[in-house]
Write a structure and sequence with these properties.
single chain, mainly alpha, 2 helices
Length: 72
Amino acid sequence: MDSFEFNFKNKRIQMWLKTVLPAIILAIFLYTFIPTKLNYIPTLVLVTAVIIYYGWAFNDKKKQKKDNALLN
């Protein structure tokens, strides 16, 4: 198993920072300023961001395996 490097050159960290972190900030903002009846909206924002991130990570991993298979 490959080790995981936590630095800003790592594509997964970059993608997480571009998708999930802004969604967390937006959700905090929305939880603060929207009425209680609409509290499902920030949750949907977070779930959508996490699904996008993990979908991208899954496709990226599949692409890397395919590229490695072509090189071998």
